[in-house]
Amino acid sequence: MCFFMRNKFANYHFRSTVARVTFAARFMETQDYLPIVLQSMVAVGFVGLVLVVTHFLGPRRKGAVKDENFECGIEIQGNARVQFSVKYFLTAILFVLFDVEVIFFYPYAVNFKELGSEGFIAVVMFVTFFLIGFFYVLKKGALEWER
Amino acid sequence: MDWFFILEKAILIIILFSLTLFIAMYETYMERKVAAFLQDRVGPDRAGPFGILQPLADGGKMFFKEDFIPNSSEKWLFILGPGIAMFTALMTSAVIPWGTELHLFGRTISLQVADVNIGVLYIMGFVSIGVYGIMIGGWSSNNKYSLMGAIRASSQMISYELAMGLSLIAIVMMSGSLSLKDIAAQQSGSLMGIEGFHWNVFLQPLGFLIFLTCAFAETNRAPFDLPECESELIGGYHTEYTSMKLGFFLFAEYVNMFISSTLIATIYFGGYNFPGLHYLPGNWQALAGTAVLFLKILFFIFFYMWVRWTLPRFRYDQLMHLGWKVLIPLAVLNMLLTGAWMTWF
Q1: pLDDT > 90 fraction of chain B, expressed in percent and rounded
Q2: In this structure, are A147 and A100 located in the same domain?
Q3: What's the rounded Cα separation, in Å, for the pair B101 and B108?
Q4: Which residues from A are below 8 Å from B121, CB to CB?
Q5: Do residues A127 and A90 share a domain?
Q6: Residues in A touching B141 (Cβ below 8 Å)
Q7: Is residue A62 a part of any domain in this protein?
Q8: What is the Cα–Cα distance from B264 to B287, expressed in whole angstroms?
Q9: Least confident of A69-78, B243-252, B321-330
Q10: Domain assignment present for A18
Q11: Would residue A124 count as lying in a domain?
């Protein structure tokens, strides 16, 4: 799959992009992100302000018993730093694995029309590998939550 | 440096911010009214005419409650959790095209805060960071039920993110761009002779259903509201929270609901496009487009509520089964079908 893609990128994209991306173009691209910085400043400001203001607005009463966790309303048994099912952990690891593969599809999808049928066959091969891994995980019973 | 550019973006951001918060506030009112309607009740009707001031009363009350931090919690993480949840909810509106362009004072003002060329990835990225808010909040509470809610929420959100990402690939293949502006603009074409009706939902019905299901799971809304199901987990990941920190978690959910309704409308239902848009002159085009977009958003917000008060909650193994064994293979199939169709037909 790799050499399919490399040929195509060399022909269509690599050379032309290098020629086009001048300093000015790079600057314009950074300017696209300027409003996002602005919005993140407003968002952080709002969140921070509200958290600080409400901290001082409400009443504050301290007490040894009162400051304990609520948990579920009755007396607390032990600590919450307990072991939990390993299946959650397994799900997280599988997510990292598959998400990386999903991300690989994005550059392909953007250039889908230029890459044509050759590119599509390459991606079908990649999807086959993806599905082999997926079915291996299923057959191993990694996603069996009932048991 | 173009200072007018910054000024116009700042104004747009402020307007968008107040609008987001206002809509999130009135979503709470709408939810209670819709629930009341579906259950043959009256709903809130005491604060102001038809109870229209109820969200203000609720918000005011939240502000004046005691800001309680349990002594066995991790104090700073406990504060950080709701902060992250709210921050990520407020950031995603930046890349959404709210309309075409306004022409004012000799300037062309785009009704989009930032037209970045990675719009779709930007949204996916912020959705992923949203997991941290819930996970940090739930873990730092030092409460077994919060922890359960948090790990349920995070593994549910990451599982459905896969299918969501895969369903969006088919859209990206069709548009050839990750920018939401391009995706929205391309839907203005004609379909079956109707101008401005080239909506992706007609071309990607399966992708739309997958995206819709995943959007419900990502926002932790019923029937996927296991992270906070009260019959098992008290209040889920925000059990220990009070005051505006609790408010942030609840508010972030409503903001997310608004944003994901916007995304569904923008990606699959033509965004600001509607048949007859191109007949309108100049600025009216932008304004009418925005108004229609908000009507579509309102419908999807109502749809969220309709589903919440109609369907029962999933069991956790059913949820995981649906996410991994049904939606991911379906999304891959959808992607391959789209590719094959576009390559050879």
Answers
A1: 16
A2: yes
A3: 6
A4: 106
A5: yes
A6: 69, 80
A7: no
A8: 20
A9: A69-78
A10: yes
A11: yes
* Domain span including residue A14: 1-57
Token pair listed for B333: 């199939």
* Tokens representing residue B152 in the block: 């349920």
Measure in Å the smallest separation between the Cα of B41 and chain A Cα atoms: 30
Last residue of a domain, one of A9, A39, A57: A57
Domain ranges of chain B: 57-95+117-273+293-344
Average pLDDT of the residues in A61-70:
78
Count how many residues are written for chain A: 147
Please indicate, yes or no, whether residues A91 and A51 belong to a single structural domain of this protein.
no
Asked if A3 has any chain B CB less than 8 Å from its own CB, the reply is no
B44: preceding bond cis by omega (within 30 degrees): no
Instruction: Judge residue A25's burial from the number of C-beta atoms within 10 Å of its C-beta, 0-12 exposed, 13-18 middle, 19 or more buried.
Output: exposed
**CA–CA gap between residue B134 and residue B122 (Å, rounded):** 20
Q: Are residues B239 and A84, on separate chains, in Cβ contact within 8 Å?
A: no
Q: What is the pLDDT of residue A44?
A: 92
Q: Which two tokens stand for residue B159?
A: 């599982």
Q: Is the same domain home to A50 and A94?
A: no
A interface test, pick of B1, B22, B67 with most A CB neighbours within 10 Å: B67
- The enclosing domain of A127 has a CATH number of 1.20.58.1610
Instruction: Convert the pLDDT of each residue in A31-40 to its tens digit.
Output: 778 888 888 9
**Least confident span in B151-155, B226-230, B265-269, B331-335:** B226-230
- Residue A68 domain-assigned? no
Q: Name the token pair of B90.
A: 């407020």
Lowest mean pLDDT among A126-135, B49-58, B279-288: B279-288
What's the mean pLDDT in B262-284? Answer: 83
For residue B210, the model assigns a pLDDT of: 93
Q: In chain A, pLDDT over 70 holds for what percent of residues?
A: 79
A4 at the B interface (CB within 8 A)?
Answer: no
**Helix, strand, coil distribution of chain A in percent, nearest 5:** 75, 0, 25
Say whether the ipTM exceeds 0.90: no
Burial (0-12, 13-18, 19+ Cβ within 10 Å), A128: exposed
Partners of residue B14 in chain A, C-beta under 8 Å: 42
Which pLDDT score, from 0 to 100, does residue A28 have? Answer: 59
